Amino acid sequence: MDGKVIVVTGALGALGSVVADEALARGARIASVDHAPTQAPATADLFELGGVDLTDAAQARKAIDAAARHFGKLDALINIAGGFAFETVADGDPRTWQRMHALNVMTALNASRAAIPHLVASGAGRIVNVGAMGALQAGSGMGAYAASKAGVHRLTEALAAELKGNITVNAVLPSIIDTAANRASMPKADFAKWVTPKELAEVILFLASDAASAVTGALLPVNGRV
Question: Which terms under GO biological process does the entry name (predicted)?
């Protein structure tokens, strides 16, 4: 990934930070985009853009354009920004469905639309989205989240078809990711069976690499050690 310029959204989160660090270790240059504020100074390899609301198309475009301008190009976009909510359909708040759609679908849509011209210019553009295994068959309490992640799956497929020959578009579908937040919410689970952020990062960065030039429109389950 030497010299590749990669935008990682949600880059300050549990998964995004690992993906960004792994990419940097492989020689990539990273534009880190997150809703959380950051005041980190820009370096030759890292450009952080904090306080960005990717549910707003104008803010997404401003951030993506700033990243491309800073590095002079853009080779890959990794859409990790998103959110999770657990509540039943009958007892939940309808606004949760709107929030999940905004955080999971619209962030990926807005960032992708902003990045497309830059990725086409790259000649080897990549978009990698984060879907969910839970969107293939939703369980109790997962309706709003699963529906939004299913939207990410369909967005991935539509973009892959529209951009074929110019940009590859794929998604990883993790099961449960081994994060501190998930351990706290499910303390009795067998953490050894969960997929680690580093394992997931390996798959994401493969899809963002030149080696994955023949892969597009794929929805790749990442199950951990079942």
Answer: fatty acid elongation
